[in-house]
Amino acid sequence: MDNALLQRKLNHAFAQMDLDGNGFIEKDDVVGMGLKTIEHFGIDRSAPRAEAVVSAFDRLWDELATTFDADGDGRVSAEEYLSGFVSSLSDESKYADFFQPAVDATLNLGGSTREGTLNLVEWRTLQAAYGTAPEQADEAFRLLDKDASGLLTRDELTAAIHQFYLGTDPEAPGNHFFGPLGTSAN
Ligand SMILES: [Ca+2]
Ligand SMILES: [Ca+2]
User: Fold this and answer.
1) Ligand sitting nearest the alpha carbon of 74
2) What spacing in Å lies between the alpha carbon of 62 and ligand 2's midpoint?
3) How far is the CA of 36 from the centre of ligand 2 (A)?
C-alpha cells in the first residue's frame, strides 16, 4: 500500500467495521454492523428489508473471510484487510461483487417509494449508525449530492463508495462517505 490517503481510508473503514474494537474483523462485527444500521432506521428485524440487510452482511462476511483471512484463523486483522484490498479488490468487477449487495440492501432501508435513494434524513440515520456526527453527515451529503436534487441516488452513492475504497484523489467527495477520516466512533 503506497498511497497514504487510501491507507488512511482503509484504516478508518477497518476501525468502523471492528465493532467491538478488538483489532480484528469477525463475523459478529460484520453482521453486527448490519443489525446496528437496521436498528438506527427503526425497522423491525423481521421485516423483509431488514432480513435482506442481515443476509447481505452475512454474505459480505463470507467474502471477507474467503478473500482476506490469509492465515485462516477465522478473523481478519488490519494487515490482512489492507493487503486483501491491494491484492484482490483493485480489480473493478471483483470490488463490485464484493460490496454491492450490502450497499444495495442498506440503501433499501431508506424510503420504500424511492428504492435505492436516500434523502438527507435517511442519510443522517445511516451515518449515525457509522458514528458520524450530524453536521459532518450534512457536509458529506452536500458534497455527494452532485446535482443538488436533495436525494442521493444509487448511482451517486455507488460512485462515492467506489471513490472511498479505491480512489486516491484527495478532492474526491467519496472520501467523506464514512465520516471524517480518523474519527470513527469506535
Ligand atoms: Ca472485532
Ligand atoms: Ca486472519
Assistant:
1) 2
2) 13
3) 24
What is the Å distance from ligand 1's center to 75 Cα? Answer: 8
Which pTM was predicted? 0.86
Centre of ligand 2 to C-alpha 67, Å, is 10
pLDDT in tens, 124-165: 999 999 888 899 999 999 999 988 999 998 888 888 888 898
Asked: is 4-176 a CATH 1.10.238.10 domain? The reply is: yes
Domain ranges of the chain: 4-176
Residue type present at position 167: G
Q: DSSP character for 152?
A: E
pLDDT per residue as tens digits for the range 71-129: 999 999 999 999 988 887 777 777 777 888 898 898 888 765 566 789 999 999 999 99
pLDDT at residue 53 in the model:
96
Q: Where are the strands (E) in the chain, listed by range? A: 24-25, 76-77, 118-119, 151-152
Is the four-CA dihedral 153, 166, 76, 176 of positive or negative sign?
Answer: negative
Ligand nearest to the CA of 19: 1
Cα of 70 from ligand 2 centre, angstroms: 6
- Cβ atoms of residues 151 and 119 within 8 Å: yes
Spatial CB neighbours of 95, under 8 Å, sequence gap ≥ 6: 89, 162, 165, 166
Between the CA of residue 98 and those of 2, 33, 163, 181, what are the distances in Å? 23, 16, 15, 22
